[in-house]
């Protein structure tokens, strides 16, 4: 662990046994969940924003949905995941939590499912799914966010790959990184959003709708 990460973690509050179990499960089964510094920063921004309806793209095992629900007692969360095995694990974990009644899991491809049936609008959208599809996710779900709402996008740094020349990126990941860089350029120039990059966790992009 780098010294900077160790220092950041001194500010992180103790977590429940269930959350620690989920973190261990994710590590053992190679399931990507948000880094501790990233989820802490996201939750603090959400506490400031105070959204009551949150849409999450990419449930994985339900860790970030649970963390957001715990941080925001008045918020309801709809979270989308296409991997059936991860959906099963997410449901099992969330059912054991105190926030199960405020989290709705939708199984399916986020580019195909319709979530308007749950809420007509969302104060916040959190995108943490297929990195090469970020622009498509943004274009599909940003219309559900009203003026003053926020889209939070994780993994913008991609463990350092986004900072490399494309020739230095492993060949199998080049298309994803190209798409991610194209999305970054597009969203930073988008006239309807004020966007900023936060160098926490694996890189968090914050897009405030004007």
Span between termini: 38 Å
Mean pLDDT: 89
Query: What count of domains describes the coordinates?
Result: 1
The CATH C-level class name: Alpha Beta
CATH superfamily: Vaccinia Virus protein VP39
The strands making up the biggest β-sheet line up spatially as: 3-2-1-4-5-7-6
SSE order, one letter for each helix or strand: HHHEHEHEEHEHEE
Features:
single chain; 210 residues; alpha/beta; Rossmann fold; 7-stranded mixed β-sheet
What's the helix and strand layout?
Layout: H1 3-9, H2 17-29, H3 36-49, E1 53-57, H4 63-71, E2 76-81, H5 84-95, E3 103-107, E4 124-127, H6 134-141, E5 150-153, H7 174-188, E6 193-198, E7 204-209
Parallel strand pairs: 1-2, 1-4, 2-3, 4-5
Antiparallel strand pairs: 5-7, 6-7
Task: Walk me through what this model shows.
The chain is of the alpha/beta class and 210 residues long. The protein has a single domain, classed as Vaccinia Virus protein VP39 (Rossmann fold), CATH 3.40.50. It has 7 helices and 7 strands. It has helices at 3-9, 17-29, 36-49, 63-71, 84-95, 134-141, 174-188, and strands at 53-57, 76-81, 103-107, 124-127, 150-153, 193-198, 204-209. The chain has a 7-stranded mixed β-sheet with strand order 3-2-1-4-5-7-6, sandwiched between helices. InterPro entries: Cation-dep_OMT, SAM-dependent_MTases_sf, SAM_O-MeTrfase, TrmR_methyltr. It is an enzyme of class 2 (transferase).
